[in-house]
Amino acid sequence: MDQGQLMRSARFRKEREADWKRLERLVTEAETHGIQHMSFAAARDLSALYRQATTALAIAREVSLDKALLEYLEALTARAYLSVYAPQERVGGVLRRFFAQSAPRAMRRSWPFILAAYLCLGLGVFVGYLLYQESTGWYHVFMPSGLAGGRGPEATTEFLRRALYDEAPDKSALGAFATFLFSHNTQVAFLVFGLGVFLCVPAILLTVQNGLSLGAFFALYVDRGLGVDLAAWLSVHGVTELSAICVACAGGLQLGWAVLFPGDRTRRDALRHAGRDAAKLAIVAAAMLLVAAVLEGFARQLIQQPETRFALGWGVGLLWLAWVVLAGRSPR
Amino acid sequence: MIRRSRPSEKRPPVDEIMPPEGVPLKLKVAGVGVRLAAQIADVLITFVGALAIFLLLIALGATDPTSTLAIGVMLFFLIRVPYYVVSELVWNGQTLGKRLMKIKVVAHDGGPLTTHAVVARNLMKEAEVLLPATLLLALDADEPVLMLLGLAWIVITLLVPLLNRYRMRLGDMIAGTHVIHLPVPILLKDLAAEAPRGAATGDRFTFLPHQLDHYGAFELQTLEKFLRVEERSVALSEYTNHRATLAAIVDRIQHKIGHADPIPPSDHREFLRAFYNAQREHLEQRQLFGDRRKDKHFAASSEDE
């Protein structure tokens, strides 16, 4: 049958079929090798043919009733669309850009939430400390028994001191690293972030509760005259780890805030918008927890002098602060 | 009375995505079952990877028995988190498990899939299900409150995808993505463009405009589907059955359009092909003039409007 006798839609198809077949081959190539590895001509043709196919699909929806053709074009255009609009970033570049620019910027943008998280923790510590002073019975209310490890109001001062300066732990360094990575505080950090979506309250409660147990713990040691030693012992990893909890809490608070007060947006849009910074805070918190685990697993066993412990812990804390305040500022 | 915020007909169809070119594309939203299967495949892959390194560490004597569990969990975690992010970045929204199940992550608004979206949805996956699950395994029984909290959290997050049209997880909502089935483009032959078998078919069966006014696009495409099955060679056992269906359809169409001449069984197929061509040409012609006929009830429905 020659061209003239064909009906309009069949002619439409016959004229473009070769292009579609070529697009199909290019899409397969892009999907298997990635657009970055295609030749210039192939990549150029891919996007040009994709736009032609989009137009063809729009026309075919108007003029053709050939179901096979319509389904083919739908699928082909969709596949081409997915390859043309693929993420084009290299993994290394993503990492560098994140730590050099986007993460510190996100931290600076969400300073009210971070401040609020630190206040929650501080409030917890303060109240926990005062309550212990009032009655040592509070200690067992705030401190999970699994965590205390026998360090309670009944323990002897000597036992408490030994816990701070334990020379030979019975674990390998890697084992200690692993244990502390999945320590209680990591669980708290992730719970705090995740629960933020539920309208902030659980995140605040968990952070305050964490502060309470810390305050009671601190009060116990101050009571025995070991306050400075405990502060040094905690500083090594605590500065980083507690900050990580606060950062995670700030991320959770941001999500919860978006759900509670979406403003002019719909709740889902607000959540998506807040998620941009909250996700970055969560990554930062995770990185801080990793560093804290390294400090706790390795450094704390090696360093025994309180002065060095203070210097290391707060030094690392200062580095974090400098990174947050200074990194990723655009030059004026 | 409860006021509905928006009538449901106004919302765009679930399976549609609007790319920047402005021509809506149909991309079928992947169900929870398929995604669970892909997820299980991914967990297995990362687990085997962690196990390999773990066994290597034991062989090298780098661990000791007291911290075995902790190291195992840590390895699994340290391998799993980058695995999802990197594979979805490199393979454009697909992990190995997703490749296996032929599903893919797309940006909900039709734009490109950004790095932020990939990272956000996979981080939320950790916070949503995987970490609470790991913690549940690692927690002692003497912390029932935390345990119950974790369990409740997992159950709630698993329910979220069942409650929205796009089957989005919480992570999908935050990242602005959803998961689709990868469409497979297969171009079948154009029925109308093929030369009909048997010479001069076009002359043997002619249809008048009023005869073609009975059916709409739905009937035409049903007929197309039937004719395509016809294309394939039919097994001998089904042959008689098939001839009977063919005869029934021809009889039905003849009756409906008032085609008087009897058609011998050997010509049934040619008749249907000719009718398909004529009907399609007619309907496409009508469509060009803005007269879309969805199915055979088009006359009644157009009066309603």
Q: What can you see in these coordinates?
A:
- Chain A: Keywords: Membrane, Transmembrane, Transmembrane helix.
- Chain A: This is Membrane protein SpoIIM required for sporulation.
- Chain A: It comes from Rhodobium gokarnense.
- Chain A: The chain crosses the membrane at residues 111-132, 188-208, 242-261, 281-299, 311-328.
- Chain A: Pfam families: SpoIIM (PF01944).
- The complex is a heterodimer of chains A (332) and B (305).
- In chain A, helix 9 (173-181) runs antiparallel to helix 13, helix 10 (184-195) runs parallel beside helix 12 (227-260) and helix 12 packs parallel to helix 14 (306-326).
- Chain A is 79% helix and 0% strand.
- Chain A is elongated.
- Chain A has 14 helices and no strands.
- With 332 residues, chain A is mainly α.
- Residues 197-201 of chain B have low confidence and may be disordered.
- In chain B, helix 8 runs antiparallel to helix 10 (268-288).
- Chain B is 57% helix and 5% strand.
- In chain B, strands 1-2 form a two-stranded antiparallel sheet. In chain B, strands 3-4 form a two-stranded antiparallel sheet.
- With 305 residues, chain B is mainly alpha-helical.
- The two termini of chain B are 28 Å apart.
- Chain B is built from 11 helices and 4 strands.
- The longest helix of chain B is centred in the N-terminal third of the chain and has 29 residues, at 32-60.
- Classes of the chains: A mainly alpha (332), B mainly alpha (305).
- At the A-B interface, helix 1, helix 2, helix 3, helix 9 and helix 10 of A face strand 2, helix 2, strand 3, helix 4 and helix 5 of B.
Can you lay out the helices and strands and say which pair or pack?
The complex is a heterodimer of chains A (332) and B (305).
Chain A lengths: L7 H26 L6 H24 L3 H18 L6 H19 L1 H24 L3 H5 L2 H4 L8 H8 L8 H9 L2 H12 L5 H23 L3 H34 L6 H36 L3 H21 L6
Chain B lengths: L15 E2 L7 E2 L5 H29 L7 H23 L5 H6 L1 E5 L7 H24 L5 H16 L10 H6 L1 E5 L19 H4 L12 H15 L4 H22 L10 H21 L9 H7 L1
Antiparallel strand pairs in B: 1-2, 3-4
